[in-house]
Specification:
It contains twelve helices and eight strands. With 287 residues, it is mainly α. It folds into three domains: 138 residues, no CATH class; 39 residues, no CATH class; 35 residues, no CATH class.
């Protein structure tokens, strides 16, 4: 069976309490049989990330109960140094907690809240936040060059058929126009009604956010139970330009498009419609 020395030799593990707990968990689970999950001691993501053949030998496999399998990936998350590998294990923990109806989770009697208590809420929040931070940065799959290339290849040469174009640009019938007109008669488009929350909803939000605080690293903000690494308490301070932009967005006047058959013109609600103009935008020219 793989030992602590074998794991450290990979160069991606940190010799810390998480790793000690991981090795202890593996050693205590060697006799697990029956309703258990197969687990790779040196995780599969390490081999795939380094383009190596996955070690599926008995030397690298152990049977774990479902709750131990979750804890194993939690300890791996805490003992790995590479951000991508940490994300993979954080994702595994969150996924297994949510899949209580799967075959692997049969006879699994723990609720999500009970698991978080076992891991501790602060630790679970750190794990969850690290996963979110990874996806916000360069680790997001959609930002990877090979993913962009796949999307580009899939869309290259795609042609919209004339039938589809016709359906999209099909003019409304007089009957359709009449029904739309009837449906909108009597409606007033004044100021929007103020959206209010019930007391029960307000209390639920208070309970959900109880104990959370704002933190920032000078560039990004985080609203969480614990302060992320390299962050400090408080929100980001807005520059004068940002304040002006927000103010303009909130005071932006509403307008409707009008045309005279030749040109389009924006007409704001409190402005007069120019002579010879009718409501609507001229059709866009087809390429």
């Amino acid at each position: 069976m793989k030992t602590k020395s074998d794991l450290l030799l990979t160069g991606v593990f940190i010799d810390n309490d998480y790793l000690d707990k991981y090795i202890a968990l593996i050693n205590n689970s060697l006799t697990q049989n029956g309703n258990s999950c197969k687990h790779h001691i040196i995780p599969r993501c390490y081999y795939k990330y380094n383009n190596l053949i996955v070690d599926d030998t008995q030397n690298n496999l152990v049977n774990l109960s479902y709750i131990d399998h979750i804890l194993a990936h939690y300890y791996l998350w805490g003992s790995l140094s590479d951000k991508t590998l940490k994300y993979k294990n954080a994702y595994a923990v969150c996924s297994m907690i949510k899949e209580n109806n799967s075959n692997a989770a049969k006879n699994f009697n723990y609720t999500e809240e009970e698991i978080i208590k076992i891991i501790t809420k602060n630790e679970f929040d750190k794990l969850y936040n690290s996963r979110i931070e990874y996806l916000r940065g360069d680790g997001n799959p959609s930002k990877q060059d090979y993913v962009k290339a796949k999307i580009s290849k899939a869309l290259k040469g795609r042609v919209v058929s004339e039938e589809t174009r016709h359906k999209l640009s099909k003019p409304k019938t007089e009957e359709h126009k009449r029904k739309l007109s009837e449906a909108k008669k009597g409606k007033k488009y004044g100021p929007k009604k103020k959206w209010t929350l019930s007391e029960a909803s307000k209390e639920a939000i208070r309970q959900r956010n109880c104990g959370k605080h704002w933190y920032n690293n000078g560039v990004k903000e985080s609203f969480s139970y614990v302060c992320p690494e390299s962050y400090e308490p408080g929100r980001l301070k807005l520059s004068e330009d940002q304040k002006t932009k927000i103010k303009l967005n909130h005071t932006h006047k509403k307008f409707i498009w009008y045309n005279n058959g030749i040109v389009n013109k924006k007409v704001y609600y409190d402005d007069e419609v120019p002579s010879g103009f009718i409501k609507g935008h001229l059709p866009m020219p087809r390429k």
